[in-house]
Structure formats: C-alpha cells, structure tokens
Automatic annotation (TrEMBL), chains A, B:
<dbReference type="GO" id="GO:0004795">
    <property type="term" value="F:threonine synthase activity"/>
</dbReference>
<dbReference type="GO" id="GO:0009088">
    <property type="term" value="P:threonine biosynthetic process"/>
</dbReference>
<feature type="modified residue" description="N6-(pyridoxal phosphate)lysine">
    <location>
        <position position="131"/>
    </location>
</feature>
<protein>
    <recommendedName>
        <fullName>Threonine synthase</fullName>
        <ecNumber>4.2.3.1</ecNumber>
    </recommendedName>
</protein>
<dbReference type="GO" id="GO:0003941">
    <property type="term" value="F:L-serine ammonia-lyase activity"/>
</dbReference>
<keyword id="KW-0456">Lyase</keyword>
<dbReference type="GO" id="GO:0009097">
    <property type="term" value="P:isoleucine biosynthetic process"/>
</dbReference>
<comment type="similarity">
    <text>Belongs to the threonine synthase family.</text>
</comment>
<dbReference type="GO" id="GO:0006565">
    <property type="term" value="P:L-serine catabolic process"/>
</dbReference>
<dbReference type="InterPro" id="IPR004450">
    <property type="entry name" value="Thr_synthase-like"/>
</dbReference>
<keyword id="KW-0663">Pyridoxal phosphate</keyword>
<dbReference type="InterPro" id="IPR036052">
    <property type="entry name" value="TrpB-like_PALP_sf"/>
</dbReference>
<dbReference type="InterPro" id="IPR001926">
    <property type="entry name" value="TrpB-like_PALP"/>
</dbReference>
<dbReference type="GO" id="GO:0006567">
    <property type="term" value="P:L-threonine catabolic process"/>
</dbReference>
<dbReference type="Pfam" id="PF00291">
    <property type="entry name" value="PALP"/>
</dbReference>
<dbReference type="GO" id="GO:0004794">
    <property type="term" value="F:threonine deaminase activity"/>
</dbReference>
<feature type="domain" description="Tryptophan synthase beta chain-like PALP">
    <location>
        <begin position="97"/>
        <end position="398"/>
    </location>
</feature>
Amino acid sequence: MSAVIDTPTTTGTTASGGTTRAGAFGHATNLRCRACGAEQQLGPFYACFECFGPLEVAYDFPTVTREQIEAGPKNIWRYRSLLPVPDDIASIPNTEPGYTRLIQADNLARELGIHKLWVKDDSGNPTHSFKDRVVAVALSAARELGLEVLACPSTGNLANAVAAAAARAGIKSVVFIPDDLERPKVLTTAVYGGTLVAVRGNYDDVNKLASEIAGEEEGWAFVNVNVRPYYAEGSKTLGFEVAEQLGWRLPQQVVIPVASGAQLVKVDKGFGELVSHGLVEDAPYKIFGAQATGCSPVAQAFRDGHDVVQPVKPDTIAKSLAIGNPADGPYVLDVTRRTGGSVADVSDDEVRDGIQLLARTEGVFAETAGGVTIATLKKLVETGQLDPDAETVVFNTGDGLKTLDAVADRVGPAATIDPTYPAFTAAGL
Amino acid sequence: MSAVIDTPTTTGTTASGGTTRAGAFGHATNLRCRACGAEQQLGPFYACFECFGPLEVAYDFPTVTREQIEAGPKNIWRYRSLLPVPDDIASIPNTEPGYTRLIQADNLARELGIHKLWVKDDSGNPTHSFKDRVVAVALSAARELGLEVLACPSTGNLANAVAAAAARAGIKSVVFIPDDLERPKVLTTAVYGGTLVAVRGNYDDVNKLASEIAGEEEGWAFVNVNVRPYYAEGSKTLGFEVAEQLGWRLPQQVVIPVASGAQLVKVDKGFGELVSHGLVEDAPYKIFGAQATGCSPVAQAFRDGHDVVQPVKPDTIAKSLAIGNPADGPYVLDVTRRTGGSVADVSDDEVRDGIQLLARTEGVFAETAGGVTIATLKKLVETGQLDPDAETVVFNTGDGLKTLDAVADRVGPAATIDPTYPAFTAAGL
C-alpha cells in the first residue's frame, strides 16, 4: 500500500534537543508563523520565536496523485503525504480514524429546499467525533519528538480521543477535567485506563492549568497546546475526504461548525492543497461557519464587519463548540469572507430542532454540534445567504449518544399498550 | 462502480401476491428449509411450508472476483453479489453500514499471551452495532417485497438500527419496547422520529406481541421475523470483511458472541462462500462462541454434549446477548464442533473486566457484548481451548456508550486537585 514517493530527509528537534529521525514529519519542512511569516525548525513549539504568533506547518510537497492516495488505507493515512507524519504511519498502532461516511441527503435537502446536499458524518470515528483525526496526528508528532505523555484539558470529545489514542499506542495519557463534570462524561474517558485528573474549577481554570503545565513540564505533549501546529493539520483530512468522496471535486458550499475555528480554516487549506496538487479542478467554493448563539463571537464579528473577535462567556447546550475566545476566529472571518460565505448562529432550541431534523430525515443522530450546523444550514437558506441550487456539504462532527440530554424532553413513545393484538389494533398506529 | 455480472432474472412473490422486479434479490433463487431441505419461492416467509422449519436464502451465484468486490463501495454493498439484494442497492438510500475497522491488537495479544490477534470493531457502524448490517439487508427485502412498515421488538441495538434505517429510507418504522425500558435507550430510538410503542410487560411479552402482529398484518416487515431469512444473511458480511481485510485469507480462529446464534452461523457460511468462489484459499479455521453465564444455554449444551439447547431465563448485564431460547443454538453447536472450536461463558464481573481490558490495551470501548467476547477469549486461552500460536480474530459488535452502567462503579479520576501548578506537582501524577 506504500506510495512511490521519495523519502524526505528533513529532520526536526526533539523535546530533549536531539534530532528527530529522517522523515519524522513527512514532507513538512518548517514551522511558519501565521502572523509574521518567520520560520523555525520543526519541534514542540506553538508560538513564534519572533512575535509570539501562532505557528503552522510548512511543507515541500512531492507530486501526489489520486492513484497513490486511493491505494492507501481506508482512513486518514491515505493522505499521509499531505500531513506532517512519517511514511510508515499507518503501520504504527493508532486508532485508524477517518474515511467516514459522506451520505447524499435527499430527504433533508427536500425539507430545506436545497437541490443537492451531502452530510459528512464524522460520528463513525473510533471515539465518535472528528477529534480522533487531530489527535492521531498530534500523537505522531509527540512520538517523533520524543514526548512521553499525551495530555489535554477537555470536558468531552477531545478527552475521549486522547485517552483512546494513548491506550492503543501504549503511551501514558493525562486528561484534565473540571471536578463537576457529569458522571457519564467521566466514564467515557476513564474507561481507557489513562490518568484522569479532576481540577477544582471551571473549564477556563482547567485550561489555564494545562497551559501552565505545558510550559513547565518537558516530555509532555498537550495535543492542543505545544503540538497544536501538527494537531490542527489533522482537520485537513475532512476536506480531502469530502473531495475524494465526491469523485475528486470540490463542493460549491460547505457548512462547518466553529469552536476554535481551526477545523474550518484547515478544511479551506485542504481544498487549496488539493487544487495546487492538481487532484481536483480549481473551482469556486463558499465556506460557511456555524455557531450556537450562546457562544457566537465569530458570527457576531462577521455581522459587525470586524476583523477581530470579541471574547464571550459561553452559555449554550453545544458544549463541544463553547470556546469563548476562539484562537482561529480572525482566520475564520478571513476564509468565510474571501470565499463568499458567512458565519451565522442559532439558538439552543434551534440546535435541538436541528438534531431531530437530521435524525428524522437521514437516520443520523448528531451531537449538539451537528444540531448547530444543520440548524445554521436551514437559517442560511431561509435568509438567502446560501444558494439552494448549489451543491452543499454539511458537517456532523460528533455523536448524539454523547449529548442525550439535548433531546430528552422532546421525544418518546407514541403510545403505551397492553401486550395483546386487540390493544395494538385499538391504538391505531 | 458496478461489477460486470449478468443481471439475474429470478423473481419472487410480493406481500400482496404479485411478482417482484427482476433481480430484486440479486442471485438468490429460493428459500430453502434448513431442517427438511424443501424449497419455496422468495417471499415474506420464514417458516417451511412442509415442516415449519426455519428458512434460509439459496443462491445460484455467478463468478465473483476480488477485483469486482474491491471496485465496490466501502460498505457492505461491495459484497452485494453474495447477498439477496438488487445490483443497484448501493444507490438506494440506506445507512451504508460495514467495512468497519479490523485492528491488529498487539497490546491485548501480549496481555493474553496470544501470538497474533485482531479486533473486528463493529462499533463504527452508523448506529454503532452490527445490527446496521442485518437491518440494511432486511430493509432491501422489505422494499422489494412491497412491505411498507419496517418493525421490530427490541430493547436496544436493533431498535436503534431499524429506526435509523427507516428514517433514511423514508419509510415508516414501528418499534416495540417494554414500557419499563431505561430512558436513555428510549431516546436513542425515539430521536429518529418513527413510531415507538411501549408495551406493558417484559421483553418476552413484547416479542410475543410482535410475532402475533407479524402473522396478522399484511405490509409489515418485522426484520427478525417475517423477513428473517434475508436479515440473517447480512451477518455474512462480517466474515467477508475479516477475510478481505486480512488480505483475502481466513483467520485460524474466531471468537464470536452468541445471542440467537445467527451471527456465528452466518460468519461460518460467509467463510464457506469465499472458499467456494475461490476468493480465499481453503484453510482450516475454528469458530468459538461466547456467552454470558447468566444466559448461556448454548455453552451449557456444548459442555453437556447435547445437540439441542435447553431454554433459560436470562439474568446478565449483557442485555444484547440475553436470548434465553436461541433459534440458531443447534446450528452454533454444529459449527463450533465441526470446526474444532467450542462455546464458553463468562460471569458478569468477567464481562466488566473484558470491557476494561480492551479499552485499556487497544482504545476500543465495547458494549457488554464485546466484554463477553474479550473475557471469553481470555478464558479460552487459559483453559487451553484456543491455540495462542494461531492467528485469532475477536469480534466487538457494539458500543460502550450504550452500556455505560457496566463500568460506572469501576473507573474514575485518579486525583482531584486545586487548579495550580504546585497542586499538580504535589499530586505526583
């Protein structure tokens, strides 16, 4: 299954100051500051040495063909040549995320008055959210950099993904959660047997502690802190897959949830890489961002015509999107404006409606984040921002089994009957 | 993506006595009695007209090649030529189940002292259990037979799969549940918007009512009653996938959970079909069945050397395997004895251990049924029934998110700390 690609020779710097093995990061060459453009060596770094701006991975790509990709495994590693991972990544124990369903959603399209609609359903991932993608790339970086602990602050999907990935890889994980986290969410991470640390405080307190530890402890890979440049690249695979599953072409419109905003920005980056490699035709597309009104700083900035995002205190049932100060907010504004899309938001009741609408029409049970994108899609059509005649892809990035409370007061049995045939017929079902 | 196969001309009888379209059941030709061998036309039948024995689907297969299969979609329809479904099945709205992960489980193998072990993880299916496979085939039969309602009695996975598949197909579903079913299990079916009927009574009462309705109502497809012969064929795809994912060869040993027993029997049938088509080399394999001690009638019959199974009243946390009078019990005994395997059972505490063991070693969070197979695998090694030097595949057929209670008292945070770095270092994690 290995593609015929020259082994790259670029190396990086390990946590202990040594040199990584050749090809440790595939065709990645550097980390580049997204603010000032300064470059530095690949390593466990996330802030620019010059200006403290956010870093991203830079590459010197070889020629990549559809045939090479199609010959790869049925998971994100089929795109390994476009990620900061070694060529043998698929054979190193990992959770094998990705290549989830892209389903043609004719029933939902009909209800919304859209001509052609697809749902990218990332609930089919190993721990049932898109976080398995980004964590898998972060884990590879951690391993190649000689880091020995995989860690994160989280209240949900990210915690599940980190604990599962570390278990499978046979390395230590430490996950930090608020001490008042609901019991089911504790269990779904604790079951993997890593170290779970309850922190007295709210999520902001937990996050702050994690950043402090990341700065102090050598050998720790906080997936969304000191290996974030690698981690974020994992989201490109959502864009790669959509295009490949459409038969190697770009959709005309995409609706993507916005938490930190990195996912949306990386899908755009992924589309761009496919074009520059000649893997898809260069065609215009619009990217739309979706937020819950209770945490909608990017939508607000979009409406106000601002380039920066004013932080908010989140208050929404869509917990997995509840980042009040989104790091990639400005980039989301840039991408949506540049492509002709927009950022919109929906109320918690609309989120619940969205979950039920998707389940009823397409048999996909989304978590609240999926309710946000479906409800936003509906709103974008109703307000004329999204063209109903253009082919559209909407993302569901998580699983309804994790946010059952969202629909708890809304659905249930149509009737309760005695266990007899006459009772059944009398019910007139 | 269509394979070059002649369109079959066999037709069947619809529910209203008409004729199905040509090729409605692919290369299936008849229903054949598993007891007396009598044949009858394809239709909504499950009991032999001669002896009331159980019916199964008979075929006149064309030549099927690896290339044809590999050119198909990445779901169970890549095997459509070997299923009772039309050649255009992949293009008719369905949940697109199957082609789930087969992961090499080196960590678990090491702990159990097994040379080479794989986990077939069916929790990646659309509603996170193997039931999506069988329901997808049942739905196709229902449609081709002109049946208008997809129905089942169930308390869990089957209910989820039926409601989701019907929603996506745009047909009516009616799911019957006991009226005391836990609220989370009600929600995960009700969210799809089909008709949910609570029945005053236990699961046996619900089941009996369903059979009565199936006998009385025309136009209803009870997936596991009147379209059961088609439904059951869906489990062959688990066997097909394991062989294809191993690089087109059979494993030497397989450990499969036993509820009705149909899954185990159909995996064996699937292996046999692969051999007869020349798709894999004919090599010996052993099939092992796994039950929870609280519902282990087949394991008991195996130990006692009986050919028939004495029904039991189930009492186990492995609810999805709790069938006290398993229809395919005798066939399970036949398959496991013929292949040199066995049927064993494990206590509920061992089931919990099994769930934790799999999660901790491989990052896979299984439902109780998966705990049963992992714990049984361990027991089979310890008792010398399973050869640790032979390549082994163990099935996880469901998702831990659906049976959180099983681990609720066993896992949790290692420590609770204040949100400060000194508190973190003092905890010594």
